[in-house]
Design a protein that fits this description.
Number of helices: 10
Helix content: 25-40%
Radius of gyration: 18 Å
Distance between the termini: 48 Å
Mean pLDDT: 96
Structural class: alpha/beta
Strand content: 15-25%
Low-confidence stretches: none
Order of helices and strands: EEEEHEEHEHEHHHHHEHEH
Length: 307
């Protein structure tokens, strides 16, 4: 496996992102090779962690508006860059990436840091992976906030918006990361903010992971990830710890998925499910401070209920 690493200089002086880098190592899945995963780690280290998982094609920069608010409320915030993204290592071939490998890499990351009593905050692919972790190791999770995400099995036909995105991602000559994030927001990103989303990718050779993700979403019942995701759903349908949906009102990709989560997951019962007004797919950009306050209030309320 050829592994690429983005030069550190590309992450200097990014707007609104003052966080010190932290690194952990996970097995690549090929021989004895390891991959370096970067993560933000803010707030008191002895507090229960809030694990913030980004999706496609973003990185922990997406959570820059939320991290200080949640940390200031007394929580430890851990926001990793998935393998292939941000400051994490980037295997160079699309074939290096699979749904299962991403699950394995992220599972090892959580176990390496020995995170327990986790509040999961997940969006987009952060949910596809994070919900698999919740199903596999529910004892490590105290509660979940699902934002613009789902866990597809391929048993239902994907929507037109997703199919168009998948086609674009696999065929566009230059994968325009910053522009993609900008088009998934309601508010305009500055040129500097778009450049921050481009920072992890000096050229197209670094984008194999970003290119691979859309094709890894199960879109047919016989996809390699379909059966593992069905098995995960069987566990999630028994998950009775607090589970909150906080979706935005302007995301064509995941619209309606919150209702399905609320119906199927027991922990959703009697929660104050939230619709954030004025948010696109990347609601952390459009409604980051508001979503952070929702997370803080949810932790406080659900911890009080279980006390």
């Amino acid at each position: 496996m050829q592994i690429l690493r983005t030069p550190d200089a590309r992450f200097q002086g990014l707007p609104g992102y003052p966080f010190a880098p932290n690194f952990a190592h996970v097995r690549s899945g090929v021989g004895k090779q390891t991959l370096r995963m970067h993560y933000v780690d803010e707030g008191p280290r002895d507090a229960a962690p809030v694990l913030m998982l980004h999706g496609e094609p973003s990185w922990s920069y997406l959570y820059r508006k939320m991290v200080p608010i949640v940390a200031a409320a007394g929580h430890r915030v851990v926001a990793p860059d998935l393998v292939g993204f941000g400051r994490s290592d980037k295997p160079a071939e699309r074939s290096d990436y699979s749904f299962q490998r991403h699950v394995d890499w992220l599972s090892e990351f959580v176990c390496t840091l020995d995170l327990t009593a986790i509040t999961l905050v997940c969006q987009d692919w952060g949910g596809l992976l994070g919900l698999r972790l919740v199903a596999a190791m529910p004892e490590r999770f105290a509660r979940v906030v699902a934002a613009n995400t789902f866990l597809p099995t391929g048993d239902s036909k994907p929507g037109a918006a997703f199919l168009a995105w998948r086609e674009f991602s696999q065929t566009v000559p230059v994968f325009p990361t910053g522009q993609i994030v900008a088009k998934g927001t309601v508010k305009s990103l500055t040129e500097q903010e778009q450049a921050a989303y481009d920072a992890p990718f000096p050229d197209e050779s670094f984008k194999a992971g970003a290119r691979a993700f859309p094709a890894l979403v199960p879109a047919s019942p016989d996809d390699p990830a379909s059966e593992p995701n069905r098995q995960a759903w069987a566990q999630l349908m028994q998950f009775d710890k607090p589970f909150l949906t906080a979706f935005s009102d302007s995301d064509p990709i995941t619209r309606g998925a919150d209702a399905v989560l609320q119906k199927l997951i027991p922990g959703c019962k009697d929660q104050d499910h939230t619709t954030l007004v004025g948010g696109g797919h990347f609601l952390q950009e459009d409604c980051g401070a508001e979503l952070a306050r929702v997370v803080v209030a949810f932790i406080s309320k659900s911890a009080g209920r279980r006390a």
